[in-house]
Amino acid sequence: MSYPLKEMTKPNKEFKSEDQITDCLEKVKTALLQAPLLHQPDEEGEFILDTDASEIAGIISQTINGEVKEFLIAFGSKALSGTERRYAAAKAEMLAATYFVEKYLPCLARRKFTLRTQNSAVDSMDSETGPVSF
Is the pTM here over 0.70, yes or no? Predict the structure, then answer.
């Protein structure tokens, strides 16, 4: 969503029209105003890390007291390099997973958590014994 703004900060980039900048800023502003409420992590809850390679995004959520509802703890994204943009889907998904495991390590360290990805090749890495837990 904010990619056009980030691209403008690179050297020798052509300046985009004022309408494009305004449109991008309005989208970012709307997204921030509608942002979900973040919750403090509960030491007893089960942590879930969702990753998506299409935009390299990660979300940590948590179920508390066995509830079906997941509570949002943190979310983030990563801008891809030119090389990373050319990764195959499974490799990009693993990049997203490793990036966000490292980014959220203080929250996930020494805890069992579930990693959910958007790529069936990654999801089935341990299909004989069930989902992969870290």
Answer: no
Q: In a 3-state reduction of DSSP, which class is residue 56?
A: coil
Structure tokens at 134: 């870290």
Q: Are strands 57-63 and 46-52 parallel, antiparallel or unpaired?
A: antiparallel
Q: Which residues of 24-109 form beta strands (DSSP E)?
A: 46-52, 57-63, 71-77
Q: Position 112: which residue type?
A: K
pLDDT in tens, 30-76: 776 665 677 888 888 889 999 988 778 898 899 877 777 888 888 88
The Cα 111–Cα 96 span in angstroms is 19
The CA-CA-CA angle for residues 79, 83, 87, to 5°, reads 90
What is the DSSP code (8-state) at residue 47? Answer: E
